[in-house]
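F.,

This is the one I mentioned.
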């Protein structure tokens, strides 16, 4: 059975698929902030933003990588016992933001981070199958238009 992401993948150009395949290699990504190697997909700010729909597949291969912890503004929204909480000081501290917005962000970003943990154990998936279901559906809709 085809998933929305598989439909989107088929309807994308060969060049886009080739670029996405090249981006699938998770070795050698250096953090744009600290310069260290982003060793695991669950440490990747780039792939988390892709999975939750903040990065388009067409720009994934040209977007700079960061460790999640090197982007604390996003990482603070991961709420999972397997992820050490991140605190942000200043105007972007989630404790100072609208409670409804924070709840939505926590739900989305946490689901995205858990999705990264899932895909790290599913090597048969294509890069376009990584995103959350609603992101895959949006990609399929955009590919069809």
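My design for it:
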């Amino acid at each position: 059975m085809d998933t929305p992401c598989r439909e989107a993948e088929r309807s994308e150009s060969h060049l886009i698929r080739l670029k996405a395949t090249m981006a699938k290699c998770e070795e050698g990504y250096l953090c744009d902030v600290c310069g260290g190697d982003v060793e695991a997909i669950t440490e990747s700010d780039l792939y988390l933003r892709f999975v939750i729909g903040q990065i388009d597949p067409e720009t994934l291969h040209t977007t700079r990588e960061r460790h999640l912890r090197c982007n604390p503004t996003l990482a603070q929204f991961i709420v999972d016992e397997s992820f050490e909480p991140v605190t942000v000081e200043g105007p972007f501290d989630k404790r100072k933001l609208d409670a409804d917005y924070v709840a939505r962000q926590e739900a989305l970003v946490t689901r995205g981070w858990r999705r990264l943990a899932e895909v790290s154990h599913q090597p048969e998936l294509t890069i376009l199958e990584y995103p959350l279901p609603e992101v895959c559906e949006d990609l399929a809709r955009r590919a069809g238009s």
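Residues 115 and 121 are 10 Å apart (CA to CA).

Talk soon.
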